[in-house]
Each structure stands twice: as structure tokens, then as C-alpha cells.
Design goal:
The structure is a homodimer.
Chain A lengths: L11 H4 L4 H31 L14 H5 L7 E5 L3 H11 L4 E6 L10 E3 L3 E3 L5 E3 L7 E3 L5 E2 L3 H9 L3 E4 L7 E3 L11 E2 H21 L9 H15 L3 E2 L6 E2 L10 E3 L9 E2 L6 H6 L2 H5 L11 E4 L5 H10 L4 E3 L2 E7 L4 E6 L5 E6 L1 E4 L3 H4 L8 H9 L1 E2 L2 E8 L3 H4 L6 E5 L5 E4 L9 E9 H8 L3 H16 L2 H4 L1 E8 L11 E2 L10 H5 L4 E3 L11 H20 L2
Parallel strand pairs in A: 1-2, 1-20, 2-16, 9-23, 20-28
Antiparallel strand pairs in A: 3-6, 4-5, 7-15, 8-15, 9-10, 11-12, 13-14, 17-18, 18-19, 21-27, 22-25, 22-26, 23-24
């Protein structure tokens, strides 16, 4: 972080989550001395209102107009390169203190990768594929980010901006796992519920067996063993009493959590469990267990959330606060020249005219692969940092169906089916349950699988996605389709990548010129965070840069 | 099931989920013979529209007016005892075919245990405790059932009735586990996320150890072992490569899924994992693992759902279809007399007058403990069946808070904290995220824990619930409270129990007179199902009884 040269070293408490607290305390002390306790208390109150109450992201105090008015300084100007979530959030936060921000966005829309696609939209990719979106009224497709973990700072922005949230169904026990390579036949996916029961069941059987044989006596006390076995009984549905004895049978034989082919209901009406239970070898060979562990990842565990009506609610709300006059669309950045007192940015307007803008500061939020192409005088270390990032490939298709067959026929309300096919996974919508239509994500793949779809024309992508999805869902996957839209993020103009692959730790010295900023130019984006590809990474990066820039100005 | 005496035995396909299909086929055959193919096709179309498309509950064809009009018969009359979900659903389904139904409900409201409490409501219990509900506008508390599993037929009713659904957050990795008896101190609950990581981690470490030692060579092939270890690596976050060698370290040392005290964010900003990882003995001794297995139960696994705005949306929608003229509130059933051609029901009107109603059939949906007190001539086998059920105790309190501190401070958006205290658990609301206020369920307990709270006055229940909840959440749990409402289901007039404990299998012969019906009297409710305490049990029971009653009439 590029601290103001006049600022002393920050204590550990201040560095934890941005260093806004330090200068605020020093500032308050100064105000208290010159204006008396009354002014100090009033100022504290005003600042405290702006401090987020969330403990996990404490430490960020947004820039405040009082920082200028009470010190007799004036807010300066900032040119922000890129109108995605990072650029918009930077303009929003700096605008709170009265900074004069201008956002330059090359596309004709804001949001960057936070793209929600709706009927009537038109998108043209770098290969000239033009898609006019045919979705019905009210339907949408989050072509970029689509889910928020509750610990993420994105939640705080939704609260602050008044963006309503609903649960994003990241996991559904009734969704499927389908692994062709492991011998599953078309039309025979397994329910996640059954896979989980079998994996947990056999794991429990094996561990109980080893425990009872004494194989783990070195690792556990008798009390540990007793407690462990009690857990395994519940967890794996094993260890039932053998009739007439006190011994327990630790074999896994299936159980109610596998699900039913006819669910239990009225007395006198037979019900039947989903059987047979596959043998241990088959369960482990099928590798279904690996598909279950996704949900114990800290970014994907329950619960997750989505903005009601589409992920672009976040950039739209940010842009509304920034104000349309400060956001210039269709403006391609062509050069950045840092100087001792000002930074000059040149850009090409939609009509082709070159413009030059001088500002006090610049925040560059373009993807590093694109920023690396912009002529600049920031030095080889900056360029070396920018070219170290590698854009990755990801693709998505949004299939609009005339009926919600996944709910009425497959009984899947939201959640994700994981496959080993090139579509990787199928997402069912987490909203509009029981309504007429819905958009299913027919693939969300990465790397070479995404490249394979990127190489196809949109119609070919649809055909391929349908052929694969039919192996899970059968003919209705094709016959109920209304229309589709697909995105290949490497082929999106002015984006050219899904997110960055970072071959070294982001705190490696090679990135220091970007992390700390160069002269009057700062850099921000999810690529400058520990949480790449998430808005959280982008927003925390912005908070840090905004704090540094603002503190540099007010604490001189 | 009491089949019509003239009906032949049903084939296996017909018995799976109610026997409506059989008589429908026979009926269609009859129509086809007498009316020609045109009539047959038209009739099939009309019937097919009414068949639910959900495979798991296929087989139920609701009574149709065509069943009468095409056979020249007239729909008869049915008196239905009880205006809960069972009674209302019975009237709704029979009403589809034109049956003249009357619902007798002792309370001044419909819904029975499907009770949603709102500001301004007033409830008086059997002990004379009068609670006037002080919730703010828009707030509500589901005092009875509150969640629906997606496989349940309740989902189909919501679709058919146009009751909008949203996700019910049954599991949240960021909610807590708090076990006093296992040594956790007030203010030191553990996040479910950390507990899960630790339990899965040590289970994986132990099982990997046993596997690598050869202790399970009898149970697994070398390939099984390899696949199992690959799973355990992901599942337990164990098995990292030891630097410089090809060996793996299978010790569990924690990992990112435990969560963070400072979450990862911007580059250059430190973050810190939630540490230290408790040792194996402590993890198993704390019994946190048992709290995790709740979510692999087939009734509680992801995803679950709730009606938008309150669970009473279901009985209200049913009642709207039945029509208010057919539902008599405040009418207490005082006798049931079955006869050869009619059944007579006596009841006391709100003004105290005794009334007598003769109908073709009766469906009794009162809880069996209350039905057992109603004088009847249905014989000792019926009475013996009724008195075999044992009402259970359950209680809930809905605490309205002036702020949603669980979201802004604890970062918990929905889900459930499990404890070993007498409150058992705390539910956070699954809707209204980021809004001003919210209702937290401060206890949902059963058996002796519920009895303990039932014995208290409402104010005392609140004080006790707050004292317990503060051990998890601290002083804000008391200071932010606005108002509360509590229910003790054993003390609710005309209910007197949460659900039934059934000491034998519901298919035991002692219950046959209830399951099959007695003369012209049928019985329905969740207590006559394999899914006691769920609306699904009630609704499937009703479907079976309605099918039997209707088929008996149309197939004579």
C-alpha cells in the first residue's frame, strides 16, 4: 500500500482491513484540539455513521466531505479507467467525499463482467458473432458473476445501496451428478442426495471398522473412539443394533437419506427407497464424492445470495449514485502519462475523436491484459507486473425454457448438477419457482472446455450444450427450449478474459508496483486481491486504493 | 385403504401412490364403450389436465365433476371435522368434483397448527395466558410448520394454489453451534463452518491413516484405496504433499473452509484464518459433529422452501378455493353417529346452540387425542386406535428485533444455530434480508424442554429464552428486542399437542380401523401418515381418503 509520505507507521490494528482508522484518529485528535470536545463528538458521530458495522470488514471508513471541509482543503479530480464494479465503486466511494470523478468505459454499457442479459439486448463478440437476445419479458441470465457468499463485502454494498437479495441455491440434494467417464449411462444420473449418502455411508463403515479393529488406538483414546462411533452412526447411517444382541452392524446398507422412488406418504400406501445401494468399489470409482466437496469450500458453502432481478443491480446501483454525467461510455483509453502534479489520460470518444484529460489522480481498473496494451510512462516494473497475469477462459449459456420441467418433472428447485462432460455443470434458477418459464445455465465451464465452446458459433454452442444436457435430462432438454444466449469471456470486447490466472502469490514483489500504485496512478480490481474472480476481491481492492488515495490527500 | 366392495384388486402400479388410476382406467373404458372415441378422448384430456406431472407423487387423480356427470350420478355431502390443512385440503379436493362439503372448525380461525402470527392477533391458551401480538407491520412468525422439502407434495399444492415460494435457509455454514455441556463458554459458540471442517478433517485423517496402514486391505482393493484417498484429500483438506518428497501428510491442520477472523481481500492487506484448530479429542468430545448430520436427513437436506409472507398462505389459499360459506368457525364437534345411509354429526355453535348435521360421509381430521373424546358409535377398535397416539410437546417463540444484528454483526443470513440448551435452537429469518427488522425464532424445542417453557407465563418464557440466547449472541440479544410471542402447542385450545408420537408403525393393525375408515367415517391427518408433523403427511393422507371416498361413490 502506498502510504502518504508524511504518515507514520500504522499499528497492527490499523493494517488489518485498510488503514482508514489511523488517519481518522489523528484527524479527530487534531479537530479535538482546535475545535473543542463538542466539535469532536459531532465529527465522530458523523464518521461513525459511515463505518460499516460488520466486524469482518471493519476498518474501512469511506472518504468523507468533512475530511476536506474541516481541514480547509478541496477535493481533487480522479479519472477512473473502466466502468465495471471496481471503477464504479471507486467513483462511488470517492464521491462520498466530493472527489470529482470521471469514469471512462470502452463498452457502451457499464458493469464489465457483471453482465445480466435480457430480451432485446444485443451483443457482438470479437469474432463478429452477433446475438440478439430473445428471452421473454422478466427472464434474465447472469452471464458473469452470479452468487455472493455471505461473508463477502459485496453483501455490505448491497445493503448500503439498497439492492435486495435472495438466496442463491448453490447446493441442492436433489440435483444430479453425472459422470460419463465413470460409467454412468445417459438418462441415469445419480441424485446428489444418494451420492452423499453412499459416500458418507462407506466412509463411516470403513472408519468404524478400523476403529473397532484397534487400528487407530495410537491416534485415539477410548473416549475419542466412543464419540467418533456415535458420530459415524448418524453421519453414515451405520451401526444399527443387530437384533437380539448388543453388537452393532457397521455395514452401510443405505438409508432414508438416499431418497425414495416413491416417497413416504399416507398410512397404508407403500413407499420405496431408491435402491439398490451400489457397492463400495463402484461408489468410490464413480468419483461422486469429489463433486460433494465443492460445498465445503469457504467461497461456496451455504448460504449464498443473489440480487433480486439480476446481478447487474449492483453496478446499476453504483452508477446511479455516481451519476450518469460522470460516466463516459464508449471511450477507449489510449494512453496514461503520469506527471509530478497531474496525470494525463488520452482516450478515443465514440465518434473517433482523441481527447486528453488531466486529473490529480488516476485509478486503473482495466483487466491487466488490456492495461498492458495501453501506452504509459509508469515504468517497466509496472509493465512487468501487468504482463504476469494470464487471462483465463470461461463460458456460459443461458437456456430459456417454455416450462420449468426441472421443477415439475425432475423435482429440482434451484441448485447445480455437476457433470464430467464439457458443459461441466447445469444451474437451475434460484428464483421464480413454479412460474411459467425460466433460464437454465446449460454450461458454465472453464479452460479448454470453455475454449472449445468459444470456438463455436452461438447456434453450434447451443446444439452442443443441448446434446450434452440431454444425457442428464432426456429429450425435454431440447424440446422445451425457447431460446439461448451464450458468452465466451475471452471473446468479449474490452474484457478478453474471465478472470486472471496469477502464477505467483499476489503479494509477490513483482506485483508491488501495481498493489502500491505508481506515482499518481493506482490500480484496482479483483486481480489485485486474494479473491480473484469475485466482486468481493474487486471491492476490497477498491476500498484499499480509495483509502490510500484519499488519505494521501487529506493528511499532507 | 377401504376400497369399494365392488372394485377388484388393484395392480401393483395402481397401489403405489393412491389407487385413483385404476378406477379412472375402468371408467374410461366404460365411457369409451358407451360414448365413442370422441367422448373418450375429450374425457381423457380433461382428466389429464388434473393429473399432477410430478413423478414422485403420480397416481393421484383428483375427483372430477365428469365422474358424476358422465355416470348420471350426483355428488353427495361430506362433513369434515377440523379446518386445518387436512380438513381444508379434503374439502378442496372433493369440491373439484362438486361434493357438497362443510368444514367444522372449533377455533375462530382456519389453519390449525399452520399458524402464522402477526401484529394485532390475539391468542389465549388453555391456561388463560392472553397474548396480544405486538409485531410490526409486515413481520410474521410461523408458530407451527415453517419449511417444506422439495420432494413433498406440499410443493405441488403451492404450485396448484398459486402460493409463491422462496428458499427456507435450513442450513447456514456461518450459523453457530453452542454446546454448554461440552465446555463451550458463553460468547464462544463455534461456527458450523469450522465445526464441519474439523470433523471432516479428523475423520479424513483417521481414515487415511488406517487405509495407509493396511488396516482396511480386506475391505478395499488398491484402486478403492486410491480413489478413497483422493476423496479424503478434498473432503478433509488433508494429504498435502510434504515439501521436497512425494509423500503426503495426512494430518488435519485446518484449512480455508474453517473460515477467517479477517477474510481475504485486497492484495497487500493481511488476512487471518480462524485458529487455533482444536485437537481431535476436543472436536469429538464437543459432539459438534452430531449437529451437522441433521442436514443429511431426507426431510431436512437442501433445499427447503417456505411460502412468501407466511406459512398460513397454504390454508388461506385452500380456504379461498373451498369458499367461506362451507367453513363454519367456532363450531365444536360433540358427537359422531354413523348409520347405514348417512352419518350424523352434532356440534355446538359459537352461541352455544347444539346443531345436528346429516351427511353422506364424514372425514375426521381432528387430532386423535381430541377425536378420542368425541362420543361416537364407531366401535372400540376405532377408539383403541385413537387412544394409541400420544401427543407430543413443542414450543416456539418469535422474537422481533429492531435491527437485524445477526446479519450486520454476526454475518448470519438465515439458517439455524443449534445448542444443547433448553432453547435447543435459534432460527434466523430466511427473508427480508437487510431490511430494518426481523423475527428470530428464539426457541424451537420439544418434549421436556418444551414442557418447561409451557409451564411459564409468556413473559417468563421470553426472559428465559433471552438469557439462553445471550450466551450465544451477547447483550444485543436482549437490548435489541422489541416484542415476542410464544406458543406451547400442548396448551393451544382444540389442538393440545404438537404432533403425535406413534408407538407402533402406522401400518400396524391397531390403526387399521382409522386408516381404512369406519363405515361412512374416514380419518385423515399427518398422524395417519409415514411423515408425521409435516403438511406432506397430512396432504398425502387426505389424497388417499378423498380418492377412496370418491371412488366408493362413483364406482358403485
Amino acid at each position: 500500500m502506498r502510504d502518504s509520505p508524511t504518515q507514520g507507521p500504522a499499528g497492527p490494528a490499523d493494517t488489518a482491513g485498510g488503514s482508514g482508522g489511523m488517519s481518522r484518529r489523528r484527524f479527530l485528535r487534531a479537530v479535538g484540539v482546535s475545535g473543542g470536545a463538542g466539535v469532536m463528538l459531532a465529527t465522530m458521530g458523523a464518521l461513525d455513521l459511515a463505518v460499516t458495522s460488520d466486524a469482518s470488514h471493519a476498518g474501512f471508513s469511506p472518504p468523507s466531505p468533512a475530511d476536506f471541509s474541516l481541514t480547509g482543503r478541496a477535493a481533487g479530480s480522479v479519472v477512473i479507467l473502466g466502468g465495471g464494479v471496481a471503477g464504479l465503486a471507486a467513483a462511488y466511494e470517492l464521491g462520498k467525499a466530493g472527489w470529482n470523478c470521471t469514469v471512462l468505459e470502452a463498452q457502451n454499457r457499464i458493469g464489465g463482467r457483471s453482465l445480466t442479459v435480457r430480451g432485446g439486448d444485443e451483443h457482438v463478440d470479437l469474432d463478429g458473432h452477433r446475438q440478439r437476445v430473445g428471452y421473454s419479458e422478466g427472464q434474465y441470465f447472469n452471464a458473469g458473476p452470479a452468487r455472493i457468499a455471505q461473508w463477502m463485502v459485496t453483501m455490505d454494498y448491497c445493503r448500503e445501496l439498497g439492492v435486495p437479495l435472495e438466496v442463491f441455491a448453490n447446493h441442492n440434494a436433489d440435483a444430479y451428478i453425472f459422470r460419463e467417464e465413470n460409467g454412468m449411462k445417459p438418462g441415469q444420473p445419480v441424485r446428489r442426495r444418494a451420492a452423499q449418502s453412499d459416500v458418507y455411508g462407506y466412509v463411516s463403515e470403513l472408519l468404524a471398522k478400523a476403529t473397532n479393529q484397534g487400528a487407530l488406538d495410537q491416534a485415539m483414546t477410548p473416549q475419542d473412539k466412543e464419540k467418533l462411533l456415535a458420530f459415524l452412526r448418524d453421519f453414515g447411517n451405520v451401526g444399527n443394533r443387530i437384533s437380539g444382541t448388543q453388537a452393532r452392524d457397521w455395514r452401510y446398507l443405505g438409508g432414508s437419506q438416499r431418497g425414495y422412488t416413491a416417497w413416504p406418504g399416507a398410512a397404508g400406501v407403500p413407499f420405496s427407497r431408491a435402491l439398490p445401494v451400489p457397492p463400495l468399489s463402484q461408489v468410490f470409482a464413480s468419483e461422486v464424492g469429489q463433486e460433494l466437496t465443492f460445498n465445503v469450500d469457504f467461497k461456496h458453502d451455504h448460504l449464498m445470495f443473489q440480487p433480486v432481478g439480476g446481478m447487474d443491480a449492483i453496478p446499476l446501483a453504483l452508477a446511479a449514485r455516481v451519476g450518469p454525467g460522470r460516466i463516459k461510455l464508449g471511450c477507449l483509453v489510449t494512453g496514461v502519462t503520469d506527471g509530478p502534479d497531474r496525470v494525463a489520460v488520452t482516450y478515443r470518444e465514440p465518434d473517433g475523436r482523441e481527447q486528453r484529460m488531466e486529473s490529480d489522480y488516476c485509478i486503473a481498473t482495466l483487466p491487466p491484459n488490456l492495461m498492458a496494451r495501453v501506452p504509459h510512462n509508469l515504468g517497466p516494473a509496472v509493465q512487468s507486473g501487468l504482463t504476469t497475469f494470464r487471462p483465463t477462459s470461461a463460458g456460459k449459456i443461458g437456456l430459456e425454457y417454455r416450462s420449468r420441467w426441472w421443477e415439475t418433472q425432475d423435482r429440482i428447485y434451484g441448485g447445480i448438477t455437476e457433470t464430467d462432460m464439457d458443459i461441466t455443470r447445469i444451474w437451475y434458477p434460484s428464483h421464480g419457482f413454479h412460474s411459467q418459464r425460466g433460464v437454465v445455465v446449460g454450461y458454465y465451464n472453464t479452460d479448454e472446455k470453455a475454449d472449445a465452446y468459444a470456438a463455436l458459433r452461438p447456434g453450434e454452442r447451443e446444439a452442443r450444450a443441448l446434446a450434452q444436457g440431454m444425457k442428464v435430462h432426456g429429450p425435454k432438454y431440447r424440446t422445451e427450449l425457447l431460446t439461448s444466449f451464450s458468452v465466451a469471456w475471452t471473446r468479449v470486447p474490452h474484457v478478453e478474459g474471465a478472470w486472471m490466472d496469477i502464477p505467483k502469490d499476489i503479494d509477490d514483489p513483482v506485483f508491488a508496483p501495481l498493489v502500491n500504485g505508481a506515482g499518481r496512478v493506482y490500480f484496482a480490481g479483483d486481480w489485485l486481491s486474494h479473491v480473484v474472480s469475485w466482486q468481493h476481491g474487486s471491492l476490497t481492492s477498491v476500498r484499499k486504493v480509495v483509502s490510500a488515495l484519499h488519505r494521501r490527500e487529506v493528511s499532507i
